[in-house]
Amino acid sequence: MKIHLAKDIKFMLTVISSIGIGLAVFYLIYTIQTPHSHTQETLLYNSNSQSWFDYKVQLMPNPIYSLRTMERDKTYISIFTDTIDISYTYQFNGSEPSHINGSYVIRLVMEGYSGHDKDFVSLWTKAYPPVITHDFTEDDSGYSIQEHFQIPLNHYLSFINQLDDAFPLASNRRLKVSCDLMMTAETQHGTIENTHTNTLIIPLTPNFYAISGNLIDEKASPITSMEEIVIPVSTGKIIFLCLLICLFILGLISSIFFIVPIAVNEKEKIIQAIFKKYGSRLIALHMQMESIMVDKPIVYVCTFEGLVRMSDELVQPIMYKEQPSKVDIDRFYVNHDDTLYCYAFDLDPLLSQEQQHLLTMVHDNRVNG
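Above: the chain's sequence. Below: its structure in token form.
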């Protein structure tokens, strides 16, 4: 079965199909031969550790509080305070067994200072012997530490009173409790090193105080590796490209063997060009000029341009018989006195030498006047 289409459309289908085949084949080869990958982070070992201070305030018998113990995060009266019970806790948990070792030390430092925050200035410090010093080692997936000790607040307040009596310094005073811990965990995937620092600040004031500081320190220490993961070629993409190539091949075969270009109507092209260029000079009639001027001789012009020149020289319009379609117009006329000049599509190839000679003579006579 043949399909009739314009020559330009057939050419366009052929070009598009050829380009489509080339691009689809190139992309198919590129997809198959070019590996694609992405970087993926793989977790080999995971661990987390945390350390914190907790405390309670033990009260002396007093006329205000019936309880002997006050929980954390409150305001306490200095003269009612007996001791501050402090606990230090450290916990380490890993995803698999490891060789754990480390050490920690708990210290007390009394400090005189002025200002707060950005304006803080340390004026003097007094360090006490470490409260607790300990080394540890363990082969396990986790490890924990629990330490308890007391701060006799009156002991340090008495020292402040003695200091003020001997050296009246206008400064604020505080007692800083700190714990510095260092640990390492050796695993089959590598070594983890962690440090934890916790502080607990006790203001040394004669009236009341509130405890603050960096009470909690928490860290996560994973061991990871970066891997290049090769992405497999998508089967669906390959199938789609193969189908697309087949579709373009069918289109190319169809455009070459099954599409017949429609023959160009040369007469139609000529008439369209005539009306485009000389349309304002053409006059349509309801009948052929031969049927009106039966007694006049007809001189057939070889080309339409020749008829146009005759029209210019004779100062006469070009006429034709109106048709339903311009393709059906086969003759154009120029009328002058006793002669009818005609350009006929159907007679153009059959013009005799005598008619051409006659036309030349008429033309020369008109020119020479």
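Residues 349-369 have pLDDT under 50 and may be disordered.
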